[in-house]
Design a protein that fits this description.
eleven-stranded mixed sheet, alpha+beta, 3 domains, globular, 27% strand, Rossmann fold, 495 residues
């Protein structure tokens, strides 16, 4: 009997929902699971079996026994609590030991009842073999020895919610750097939308329709060489300028060569990581999804709301929970020299949080570095994720979200934008806003009265923009220490 790789000793099962254990064995084989004093039974069909564990009591450690005619499997130290899926691309993957805090901080922290599982980052499969090859993964207890390899964002998230609850917490990491959201959605779903089909499917595969395996291998070798030369250049600069930040290094030596060559082995191919990574955990049950992604989709920012909405609906369907909450990190500020579309993508992220139920936006516009797409400070984003989960999932009274606009009124050449909490300026400078029509763009500075911004607006102005740049400098915050989100507002003078 074989059990899917996501299950092992030390795992955390989700409370208050269905938990599915799946595997393979001989056909028509009786399979039983004994857990928390209950026996669950099933019979395999087409050499696969699935058993649903329900009404599980939070706590642990417990023992879980799987039994069939051919064998017996025993897992130890099984817990029941809340499990969070930490998904996305490189800024979610970014490890704690590589962040600003370093090893001294990691070894000084007390952790309790926190466990994690990292989905192997398989890029492609060939002749039944996964590449790169990996050892069978296992759930691990988070402690000063192991937590350095955890997602830094997920680590700070779980430490934040730990202040609220002492139940077992599980983190499942399913993330990989440099990935479009289209990598995490099956092609047959992408093809249902005419825009996504053209941008992500047709353009990709048309470019490689005549490419041989030899051509792809040659391009991969050339890319690896260019990447190696670049890393040598970065290291040389670091040696000569040890006090410079990564943002300063990137500005001096340029950005990492990207993307790699397209092809069958490219992990960036549409639908690829859905098959090689997400499929590993799509029978698991979760409390919420923590989603930090979007950098790779900036070039098609205008369609990101369609793409992200499709991913949310598909994942909820696969995970058998149509109300599974998604907590989405809005992209921070970054001076992208290639694409001037970061504000559009942030706008689309906000739109999804407004239109799709149980999607919550984590504002991080003040958390970036100008020339480093991987900011090394992950504490604030993790804490804001945690506070938002405390508010929306645990129903705590904490003010866990960014200030929200509650009303917009235009009265006697003045525009009044009211928020749900008082605002303040962090620092001495008054925040600049941009107003424009089809000919004129200029900056204005509002009057701030408690929870309301008041603007003097010319008759011909049609739009008001805030932080609508790749790399804006912001200093207008709510009383809960979260900045107001970037926006672009059409001024309606008829209301």
């Amino acid at each position: 009997m074989i059990v899917d790789i996501v299950y092992s000793d030390n795992m955390v099962l989700q409370r208050n929902t269905h938990n599915y254990i799946t595997g393979q064995c001989l056909d028509n084989e009786d399979v039983s699971i004994y857990f928390q004093g209950t026996r669950y039974r099933s019979q395999s069909k087409n050499n696969t079996w699935e058993i649903c564990l329900d009404h599980l009591k939070e706590g642990g450690p417990y023992q879980l026994l799987i039994e069939s005619h051919e064998c017996q499997i025993i897992w130890e130290h099984i817990y029941v609590g809340d499990v969070f899926l930490a998904a996305g691309q490189s800024n979610m993957e970014y490890r704690l030991k590589d962040s600003y805090l370093g090893d001294e901080y990691i070894h000084s922290q007390e952790l309790n009842n926190i466990y994690f599982f990292q989905v192997p980052r398989v890029e492609y499969r060939e002749k039944g073999q996964s590449y790169p090859r990996f050892e069978k993964p296992h759930w691990k207890e988070a402690n000063p020895t192991t937590s350095g390899n955890l997602s830094a964002v997920a680590y700070h998230f779980v430490r934040t919610i730990r202040q609220y609850t002492d139940i077992p917490i599980g983190i499942v990491e399913c993330n990989k750097g440099g990935t479009s959201a289209s990598c995490w959605i099956p092609n047959k779903e992408l093809e249902k939308n005419i825009y996504l089909k053209e941008l992500y499917i047709d353009q990709y595969f048309q470019d490689i329709q005549d490419q041989s395996d030899e051509d792809e291998n040659r391009k991969i070798d050339e890319f690896k060489q260019s990447l190696q030369l670049y890393m040598q250049k970065v290291q040389s600069y670091k040696n000569n300028h040890p006090d410079h930040s990564m943002s300063e290094i990137k500005k001096a030596v340029g950005h990492t060569p990207w993307p790699g060559p397209k092809g069958k082995k490219d992990f960036g191919r549409p639908g690829g990581l859905y098959e090689t990574m997400f499929s590993v955990i799509k029978t698991y049950s979760f409390a919420s999804v923590l989603w930090y992604q979007g950098e790779e989709d900036v070039k098609y920012a205008e369609y990101y709301d369609i793409l992200l909405t499709l991913l949310i609906h598909k994942w909820r369907s696969d995970l058998r929970n149509n109300h599974l909450p998604f907590f989405c990190v809005q992209l921070p500020n970054y001076n992208d020299e290639k694409y001037d579309k970061w504000p559009i993508l942030r706008e689309k992220q906000a739109l999804v949080s407004e239109k799709v139920k149980d999607v919550h936006l984590i504002v991080s516009i003040d958390c970036g570095e100008e020339f480093n797409i991987h900011p090394i400070h992950k504490e604030v984003i993790g804490q804001r994720l945690g506070n938002s989960v405390l508010l929306h999932y645990y129903n705590d009274s904490i003010q866990g979200d960014a200030p929200k606009i509650t009303s917009i009124e235009y009265i006697d050449s003045k525009l009044y934008i009211k928020y749900n909490q008082n605002l303040y300026y962090k620092g001495e400078n008054i925040q600049e806003f941009e107003i424009q029509n089809h000919l004129v763009r200029k900056y204005v500075y509002p009057e701030l009265k408690d929870d309301t911004l008041i603007f003097n607006i010319d008759q011909d102005c049609t739009q008001l923009l805030y932080a609508y740049k790749n790399y804006p400098i912001v200093n207008l915050y709510g009383i809960n220490e979260i900045p107001i989100a970037p926006f672009r507002i059409t001024i309606n003078k008829n209301v």
